[in-house]
Amino acid sequence: MSTTAEAPAETHEFGAETGRLLDLVVHALYSERDIFLRELVANAADATDRRRFAALTDPALALPEKAAIRIVPDKSARSLLIADAGMGMDREEMIAHLGTIARSGTRAFGAALADAKPEERPNLIGQFGVGFYSAFMVADLVEVTSRKAGSEHAFTWSCDIASGQGFIIRPAERAEPGTDVLLHLKPDAETYLDPAALEAIVRKWADHITWPITIARDGKDLPANEGTALWRRPRAEISEADYHGFYRHLGHMFDTPWATLHWRAEGMTEFTALLFIPGTRPFDLFEQDRSSHLRLHVRRMFITDKAELLPSWLRFVAGVVDTEDLPLNVSREMLQSTPVLGRIRKALIGRVLAELRTKAKEAADFDKFWENFGAALKEGLWEDTEHRTELASLLRAPSSAVEGLTSLAAYIDRMKPGQEVIHYLVGEDLVALRASPQLEGLRAKGEEVLLLTDPIDAFWPERLASFEGKRLVSASQADVAATTDLPDISVLTAALKSALGDAVAEVRATGRLTDSAVVLAAGALGPDLAMQRLMRRSGRGGPMPPPALEVNPKHPAIAALAAKASDAVLVGRAATVLLDLARVAEGEMPRDPAGFAREVTALLAGSLGSG
Ligand code: ADP
Ligand code: MG
Hints:
Layout: E1 10-12, H1 16-28, H2 35-57, E2 69-74, E3 79-84, H3 91-99, H4 106-115, H5 121-127, E4 139-147, E5 154-160, E6 167-172, E7 178-185, H6 195-205, E8 213-217, E9 220-223, H7 240-251, E10 259-265, E11 271-277, E12 294-298, E13 301-304, E14 318-323, H8 332-337, H9 339-359, H10 363-383, H11 388-394, E15 396-398, E16 405-407, H12 408-414, E17 422-426, H13 430-434, H14 440-444, E18 449-452, H15 460-464, E19 466-467, E20 470-474, H16 490-500, E21 506-509, E22 518-521, H17 529-538, E23 548-551, H18 556-563, H19 568-585, H20 593-607
Parallel strand pairs: 2-8, 12-14, 17-18, 17-20, 21-23
Antiparallel strand pairs: 1-6, 2-3, 3-7, 4-5, 4-7, 5-6, 8-9, 10-11, 11-14, 12-13, 15-16, 19-20, 22-23
Helix pairs in contact: 1-4, 10-11, 16-19
This protein binds adenosine-5'-diphosphate and magnesium ion.
């Protein structure tokens, strides 16, 4: 698309969602207005990083020698300027990036905001990538003048929030590539004209930005940040407050890290790493387009946050890795092919796992970590053959036998003599799992069952297969051999099977129920019931084999039905109800919900003597 400098001013509407979002940001975050400066300075630094990186492949885009981020308050005009020499934006980019919400969407942001405690709200702004809008907390009118590096043309984007008119784009002049964000401050935001107040904010939020930041005072641009690379300083010189400040800057996080790992690796590959394991779960942990908070630097210079320095199951780790073993002008292709990154990655995984092993000794503290990030580590159990055993020893899960969480090792310690396998059951919530008929027989035998409720739980047990020599077996996969010593109801089971036809693979008597009359069982070899449900829902995996219907011969209803097994009409109606009851106990719908409701109502009327 060509941009014509002669194009006239154009008015654009904000998307409906964007308008609402603006309102949210302005009002919900009012008590934390200072963060507008953090957001705008962060954008300026990002743009400067981007230009530096682009110049590696296109020297024409090179940064000017003094690529500072300038903050210029103007008392007489009551305006505040944040200027950078970064990548800039062309007309289309301004429309796309400043006029619409690209990422996770307003609705999600609104919902998260409503849920968040007031002190967590500022956190959300950065996480949702809506930082630019925070400018409207302090300004009525915002003018962004930008010239993209490599282009002759500049444009001004402006929005007067009171006009309700959306934003205007018009051609402009700018001597050099880069961006000016000019805020016309609201009357009650005059403190942001005071250089000392601005400096205090920069020190608090932006001190870790490695580009120089200056604040204009009496016509002079004075440095406002140290710009030191914290991770390069010896640990002994760094206070906990320094670490926490840096952590917050990195990931737009407002919590305190659960673990801080800072070390220098020497030998084959030399690098410094400063990694944080967050103390809370980021809202977007399971979003596809989540941005990484793990940055690769080469000799202090930021290179990229997309280098996959950790596997996806450790994606919650934030931090910085700084190496001397890559050239400063490392290209994208080189990042993909260099063995250096593979070696760093291996070392980082090893170090994080070692930290988790150590911290796992403090059960209560480790459980907190597990509640936040266990579901991500379980993805490693599924996909990472190399670390599977190690991850299995970190695994924690609720169980039918203990309060809180248990490890597999502790489970094995509690196993009954004669218990051969580790039982588990997957479902959507813990309350339903604890009440599931699938547990009855095992509970009666005093055998413990792990209760798993994360979506990923349908997958990994199959891959892990065993732990310390004990097989993992789903409680929904019946052990047919265990069914002995039962009253003979073979006439009834045959009649039920012929009434149900292909809806079930088999109808058989079982000894694994105590209170329930029926239960579904998956075949011992194929996927368990939870996995089947998941595959059905996602439409993958083709048709599933029907489950077996297991009936409890000791249950009064079954015993009574067995006595009337020759009444084909009665057995036919009962068969449908029994199968649907077994489905309902699994959290599934009856096959014909309305018919099921009618049938159960009729039975109820009968048992109350009114039918
Ligand atoms: P985020 O920074 O998380 O992407 P923002 O709302 O802060 O979200 O900014 C939106 C987008 O606008 C940025 O991703 C960037 O593309 C663009 N942008 C904002 N400020 C600048 C700037 N100073 N220079 C270049 N692009 C910018
Ligand atoms: Mg931003």
